[in-house]
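User: Can you predict the 3D structure for this chain?
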Amino acid sequence: MGGLISMNWAAANPDKVSCIVSVIPVCNVTDIVTNDREGYAQFANSAYTGGWSESAYGAGHNPFTLSQAGKLAGIPMLFFYGLTDKLCIPTWPEQMKRHAGNNITLVPLQSGHDYDSYAAVNQPMIVDFLNTHNV
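Assistant: Here is the predicted structure, written as structure tokens:
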């Protein structure tokens, strides 16, 4: 977990990041709030002064917006995402890949936003990815 935070931190500190590995990352906070995905709008709203607003917080805190702006460009990312995820629906990692191109490797899992996703992760793939991208 922690994909949202790792992408935010990487966008703000790209010179300190060699790559990102994320399992079921939250990619679009605005979508979660707007559509109250899995009842999480209240949590996102309580985490930001005045509630979540794309215009106030998106440019610095929404991975999807950061991706659109090119702020994650050049950072290799490996995303394991759930095809039945109802919190971070598959649309968002797939659209982020369209922005970042070969920068993001997507690995779809037959699971949702739950612990089954962790059990389904290909651990040797993570090791190979880290070995390839850590200098």
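The chain has eight helices and three strands. The mean pLDDT is 94.
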